[in-house]
TrEMBL record:
Species per Swiss-Prot/TrEMBL record: Saonia flava
Superkingdom, taxonomy of origin: Bacteria
Name recorded for this polypeptide: Nucleotide-binding universal stress UspA family protein
Signal sequence residues: none
Matching Pfam families: Usp (PF00582)
Residue intervals of the UspA domain: 1-140, 148-271
Family: Belongs to the universal stress protein A family.
Amino acid sequence: MKSIIVPVDFSEQSEYALKIAASLAKEHKAEILVLHMLELSTAMISSAEGVQVDQAVFFMKLAEKQFETFLDKPYLKDVEVTPIIKHYKVFNEVNEIAEKHNADMIIMGSHGTDGLKEIFIGSNTEKMVRHSNIPVLVIKEDMPNFKIKNIVFASNFDQENLMAYEKASAFANALSAKLELVYINVPGDNFLSTADAYKKITKFLDWAGLGQAVEIYNDYTVEKGILNYSDMVNADLIAIPTHGRKGLSHFFMGSIGEDIANHSKIPVVTFKI
């Protein structure tokens, strides 16, 4: 682990993520890229009019000053920290930053959303999970003694999830954590008999060259199953693949990865398929 991106809006949730990033950076001698995305309009940036230019400069200077205060923390001592300010709130830009700096993961704080706000607006967490090409670790609360011992990896065990599993396994190894695999069986068209479920899982394990056991857990929905199983085994973190659906596909079908990241009380790390 060489480089970690932490998107911040200077909230307490952002600081929760920054503390975790500092902990991992010290352990792995990694750099932290602290990213703040301004919500300036294209007109404001490109305008030749003095008033709009002055407004853009004002917001840039304000962000720089906020960075000074926000990053003046004792837990960042002896950690290489690079502040980055982007003019727009464009989540695709995060992939450009990740590629440029060879970043390994994104850590971000979230308070989650629900109800109509989630349907029509979505949270920054959902958008980051949807667009990011690298793993996204979502933190919901302050964790002074961040230690991950037990990770639940939930999957439908289709072949397309192999790379996500490999990334989750590498992530667990980096944290010296145990990785538990679970298949959530739900009623309806996707229901599988125990025999068929094990047949599907065995095929996946053969593809991956694994001899690891996989738990089959029954519940009414995949999301509830993942959350309930993780609670039952006292998991410290949930790891899950996500398709990162966009547009109408996301509106009608949603993404389990995004929903789990939004609603889980424990940290969640997503791996884009």
